[in-house]
Each structure stands twice: as C-alpha cells, then as structure tokens.
C-alpha cells in the first residue's frame, strides 16, 4: 500500500502534529502549576528521578478575637487596655470657703500672678482662707501711665477687705524712667533714686491702710544681666518696706544653686527634683509657682492665725453633733456614782489597811528610844560587821600580895 501524497496529506500530518504538541504543552503546564520544577541531582541520574511529593499548604491561623487587622498590607495587632476600675476613688473636691473667710490680696506683675496661683494651691484645703489675685502682668512702678499701683491699691483694699496684702513687682521695671525732672536711663544713679521714691510711696500707701503688708523679692532669671539687676532691686524693696514696719520675704535661694547661679530644674517643696521654670527662663511651672508660694505661706499663716487650719469647719443646724449617741435602752442602764474625795482616808469605807489588824505595840524600847533615853545604842547583834567582842580584863592582885 502506498503512502498518501500530495498537499492534502501534508496538511493532515501537520494538523495531527500541532494537536499532539498542544496537548503535551497543556499537560506540562498543569504539572508545573501544581509542583514547582526541581533541579535534578547526581542521585537522580544514578538511581532514577524520584516522583515529586505534593505538600499541602499549612492552615493559616485565624485572627484572635478581631485583634489583628491588615493595614497597608501589614498586620497590625491592637492591644486592649484595661478599663479603669469603677472602684477607683476620685480626688475629692476642696472644701467650700466660709462666708467669713479671711482674704489675702496679691498685687503686682506676672511674677505676682504666679505667686497668687501658688498661694491658691497652698490654701486650697483651708476653708477659712481665700486668695484674691489682682495682678497685672505688664505692670510695674516705672510706667505709672500704664497702671498706677499707689493710686489703685486703696480702692482694691476697700473692695476686697483683705487681712493681708502681698506685693511682688519689679520684673518689668528695667527700662527708662520718666519723671517731672526728666528722663533717666536704667542703671544710673538718678534712676535708682527716683525708683526708690516710687517704691517708698507704694509701701507707705499699703501700710497706711492698717493691713499687714508682705513684700516679696524678685527671683533669679536666666539672662545674667536681669539676675544682677534683680539683686540690686531687692535691696531697694527691703530697705523701703522695713522703714514702714512692713515685712520682706526673700525667695532668692529657692531658684539658684549652691553657687548662686540660675537653675531651671531644682527641688520642690518636698525635696523632689522637678522643673521650676519655663523654657524662656523667666516664667514659672506649676511646681515653681508652688515653691514660690512656699516662702510666703509661713508669713501669711502667722498673720491669719487659726483660719489657715484645714480642719476648720462651720457648725450650723445641719451638721451639729448629737449630744446623746447611745440608744434609749442603753442610756437608761447607765449607773452614776457619787464623786469621791481624794483627801478622804477612808475611800473604801474601811479604817484598816487591806483588811488587816494592826499588831499590838511592844514594850521593848526601840534603838531610837534607847539612844534618846540612855544616850547609847544597844549592842549590835553577833556576827555583824560592827560587832566587836572585847576580851575580859584580868583582875588586879590584892595589895598584900605586892612585895
């Protein structure tokens, strides 16, 4: 039989070859998708190629209670925090101030404002003390056209009716001073002379109100020239207030180190290291305000007396204690006893000591009686250290026996 020839035969053979090739390619592709191709090793050439073993994928662990979530193709695990316990006791609010609470008036610049905040914290638990801060942060004694403290102070005292006046001022006064005699530059003798007169005027006005006055000095600041000026101004404040029988409180040591240099971090009122000043080296932090008031607190308490006690309460019809706290059944069972005279020799109604009988009196004289009556003590007993036995003396021979 002859093989078919011609174009039709060639077409059939070509189609059969394409069909077989396509089938083989699809089969190899499916096997390649199930198992990745592995390189043949020397052992495969010698002992034959091993059949690939299919390894199923491991089961992925499900997320735990929705704590893991995907974000930007990354797994993020959220941690649940414990809710605050409802039993946690909240800080009790401070007690309300009494209607007759004594008031402390604080005036001055921004340093006085920080001092007022510290005094409010110091007397927060004292219902008998109320702090009134009337500070003006940009004020001073140089620019009296901006705020005139000697003129405003009597009006404030009449309005507030304070028991103590606290003054702290001068941090803004490092500038030119204008008077009727001319303009004086800072750090000149004329400037210090005119400034001292204004300080004396304010101190005199404060003391004429018959209210105790406490003048607080300036603290140290970060700028060195400002610190040096504060030292000079403190001498003026001290001398002026002491001339009118006022009190000056120096706070300098609380805001400098042992070498007298400015510090940002130091010890608070409890001795713990804290930050006392702000980033500018001028203003105060919360602990710094409290430490600022710590130096003034002692003087204020001395002027206010018992009103500074935190245990002071006001008694009215709503909080009077009960006079009889016992139930009626127990109050009837109380047995009262009459008072006993401490000078009565017969407190128990008897005339004998512990129910005993006094021994009969002896007729033998005591050593004391023998010493009084006979002038000599009886012989000590035998064996005592003062007992001395004398040897008997020999009798003298008769006179006839003598030659």
TrEMBL record:
List the residue ranges of the region (Disordered).
Answer: 52-99, 358-403
Q: Which InterPro entries match?
A: DUF459 (IPR007407), SGNH_hydro_sf (IPR036514)
Which residues does UniProt assign to the signal peptide?
1-32
Bias kind Low complexity: ranges: 81-90, 391-403
Q: Which Pfam families match?
A: DUF459 (PF04311)
Q: Does the keyword Calcium apply?
A: no
Keyword Signal part of the UniProt annotation: yes
Keyword list (alphabetical) reads: Signal
- Spell out the protein name for this chain: SGNH hydrolase-type esterase domain-containing protein
Q: Which organism's genome codes for this protein?
A: Peteryoungia aggregata LMG 23059
């Amino acid at each position: 039989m002859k093989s078919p020839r011609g174009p039709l035969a060639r077409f059939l053979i070509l189609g059969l070859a394409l069909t077989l090739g396509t089938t083989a390619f699809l089969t190899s592709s499916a096997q390649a998708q199930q198992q990745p191709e592995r390189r043949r090793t020397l052992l495969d050439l010698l002992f034959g190629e091993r059949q690939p073993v299919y390894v199923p994928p491991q089961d992925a662990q499900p997320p735990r209670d929705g704590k893991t979530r995907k974000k930007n193709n990354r797994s993020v695990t959220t941690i649940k925090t414990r809710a605050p316990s409802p039993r946690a006791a909240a800080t009790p609010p401070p007690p309300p101030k009494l209607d007759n609470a004594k008031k402390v008036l604080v005036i001055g610049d921004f340093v006085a404002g920080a001092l007022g905040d510290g005094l409010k914290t110091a007397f927060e638990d004292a219902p008998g003390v109320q702090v009134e801060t009337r500070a003006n942060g940009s004020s001073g004694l140089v620019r009296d056209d901006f705020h005139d403290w000697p003129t405003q102070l009597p009006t404030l005292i009449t309005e507030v009716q304070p028991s103590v006046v606290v003054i702290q001022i001068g941090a803004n006064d490092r500038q030119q001073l204008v008077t009727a005699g001319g303009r004086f530059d800072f750090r000149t003798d004329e400037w210090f002379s005119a400034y001292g007169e204004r300080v004396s005027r304010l101190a005199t006005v404060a003391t004429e109100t018959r209210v105790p006055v406490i003048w607080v000095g300036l603290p140290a600041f970060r700028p060195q020239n400002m610190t040096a000026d504060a030292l000079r101004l403190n001498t003026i404040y001290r001398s002026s207030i002491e001339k009118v029988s006022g009190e000056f409180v120096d706070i300098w040591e609380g805001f400098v180190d042992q070498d007298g240099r400015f510090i940002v971090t130091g010890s608070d009122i409890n001795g713990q290291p804290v930050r006392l000043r702000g980033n500018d080296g001028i203003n105060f932090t919360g602990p710094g305000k409290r430490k600022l008031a710590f130096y003034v607190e002692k003087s204020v308490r001395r002027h206010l007396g018992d009103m500074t006690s935190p245990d002071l309460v006001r008694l009215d019809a709503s909080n009077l204690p009960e006079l009889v706290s016992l139930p009626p059944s127990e109050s009837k069972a109380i047995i009262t006893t009459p008072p006993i005279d401490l000078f009565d020799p017969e407190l128990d109604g008897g005339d004998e000591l512990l129910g005993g009988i006094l021994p009969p009196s002896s007729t033998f004289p005591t050593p004391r009686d023998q010493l009084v009556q006979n002038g000599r003590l009886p012989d000590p007993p035998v064996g005592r250290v003062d007992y001395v036995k004398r040897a008997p003396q020999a009798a003298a021979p008769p006179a006839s026996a003598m030659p």
